[in-house]
Design brief:
By secondary structure, the protein is α+β, with helices and mostly antiparallel strands. About 45% of the residues lie in helices and about 15% in strands.
């Protein structure tokens, strides 16, 4: 049975995660991402984050239950339009799932110098470095990059690592003679103002504000940190008066209390 505390927490998250009016344009979707800081494309079990899908779908709708519906199509279009317009970064990051980051949170999480060769300083699969080097001269379609690598599985692993390090992002689409439009991939540092702004404290605070309450394990899974690192950043927020502990979890200082 769900107790009063869990219901109150769920309501607090709903108030935080759902805008008063559904986004109708990509600009409005960008304002939603900017407000929450980070969002999944579609909701996922055991992934503590808002989703863009829930802002446009009917209440209690289940993503993909009836295939590509209007809400799914809208979200699928915006995932490329948002980064193309510089409104949000897109890639597999939060909980290793398709997600969006506001430019402010992206800057706080980006650990590189903001240079085109940031990948060279990181321990990445050979194919990931090949993709990053191919993008030095400009964006390329995902199809062209897959052909460059040759092996689909190796390409997928490389792209996952590049996105988890926030080095690449979607950058729109290119129409093809047949089939679906091809996604365009570009270096994050060419599309967004990153480099020199890494701030783990800000990134931690931003996630906690949106999650309302989170454990170190949830923060670690969200950002790809270790649990020890996540706990140290949360403890630092407590010490700074920006958060408080609640048993095994941490709550944003500005969040409303729930029944004990």
């Amino acid at each position: 049975m769900v107790d009063d505390q869990e219901l109150a927490l769920a309501r607090a998250r709903g108030d935080r995660w759902l805008p008063e009016a559904r986004p109708q344009t990509v600009e409005e979707a960008g304002r939603f991402v900017d407000d929450v800081g980070c969002a999944l494309l579609f909701p996922a079990a055991n992934a503590l984050a808002p989703s863009l899908y829930e802002t446009v779908a009917d209440e209690d709708a289940v993503a993909w239950a009836d295939g590509m519906g209007e809400a799914e199509s809208t979200v699928w279009t915006w995932k490329d339009a948002l980064p193309e317009a510089g409104l949000a970064w897109y890639g597999k990051f939060l909980f290793r799932r398709a997600s969006l980051l506001s430019p402010t949170l992206l800057r706080a999480l980006y650990t590189g110098d903001g240079e085109l060769d940031d990948h060279e300083d990181l321990d990445l699969p050979r194919e990931a470095h090949e993709i990053a080097r191919a993008l030095l001269t400009g964006p390329l379609t995902s199809r062209a990059l897959r052909e460059l690598i040759g092996d689909r599985a190796a390409y997928d692993r490389a792209m996952t690592e590049l996105q988890r390090r926030l080095l690449v992002t979607s950058a729109g689409v290119r129409e093809q003679r047949a089939g679906w439009p091809a996604s365009i991939v570009d270096l994050t540092c060419r599309r967004f103002d990153v480099g020199g702004g890494h701030d783990a404290a800000t990134a931690t605070s931003r996630y906690l504000e949106t999650a309302v309450e989170a454990t170190p394990a949830q923060l670690a899974r969200a950002y790809g940190w270790t649990a020890a690192v996540a706990r140290s950043h949360l403890d630092a927020l407590v010490d700074a008066g920006q958060a408080r502990r609640r048993a095994s979890a941490y709550r944003s200082q500005g969040a409303t209390d729930v029944p004990q």
